[in-house]
Amino acid sequence: MVNAKRQKEMKSLGFLLQNDKEHFAVRFLSKAGNFTVGELNNINKLAEKYGRGYCGLTTRLQIEIPWIKDEDVEKVIEEAKKLGLHHGGTGQKIRPLVACKGTVCLHGNIDTQEICRQLESKYFGTDTPHKCKMGIVGCANNCAKANINDIGVMGKTIPEFNLDKCIGCGLCIQGCRQKALEVVDKKIIYNEELCVSCGECVRVCKTNGAIAKEEGADIFVGGRFGRGMRIGDSLGRIFKEEEIVFVIDKIMEHYREIGNKGERISGVMDRVGKGKFISEVLRKLD
């Protein structure tokens, strides 16, 4: 049986005690959800040598090798280091960041994985008042559930319609899953209330009848899931792609300034008021 002190020490390194209280699962870290072929091969080798020949994927796009014996932990750490593999991802700090495949996806409005890599290099593993999760998605499909992270980013394209160039072909209507568009007298009628800013109408339009009025991302704060669920609140504006990291810098700055130990961003917002939290973040941007 692994004692409590050892269990705590190993957890901080990404070795999580299994329910038999004798084995660990070690969590290897991706880069924005990606592993190279070489990294995957090396993880497989460790799984065959020290585990039971298989791996598991976590919900935050990391890879775990279960069934590591306690007496083999230090060997795994040493070999992983030589192979260039990184393990960790727990504790009161920034957890592994998650990005959807918006960078290469047909629906992506922003370079999700590059943004994730920039944030990861700056924040992953750094101390925070409580655990803090970040998620980046490329569109309103929200595959990585951005707004149930402490900080979430959702790529958006706000459309604008030039009726002088619209020929009423209906391509944008076919692409609009929200039914926010219709053709009346061979011209597009736009229902802004139904629109989720996915950008599909802009992508499919061949005549520049639909163009991008704004491109960038909505940013959410205070989301969480699990034992207590809260949908994150939007900062209330669309930020350009090149502004995203700077905005998150200011969110993190404010969280670290006023957050109490053991308090997630959602807890801070509940305590001080979500309106005040958001207004203070926006003030730091000016």
UniProtKB/TrEMBL annotation:
One MF term in the entry's GO annotations: 4 iron, 4 sulfur cluster binding
Stretches assigned to the 4Fe-4S ferredoxin-type domain: 157-186, 187-216
A Pfam family per the record: NIR_SIR
Superkingdom of origin organism: Bacteria
Keyword field: 4Fe-4S, Heme, Iron, Iron-sulfur, Metal-binding, Oxidoreductase
Identification of the protein by name: Dissimilatory sulfite reductase (Desulfoviridin), alpha and beta subunit
Native organism: Clostridium saccharoperbutylacetonicum N1-4(HMT)
UniProt lineage: Bacteria, Bacillati, Bacillota, Clostridia, Eubacteriales
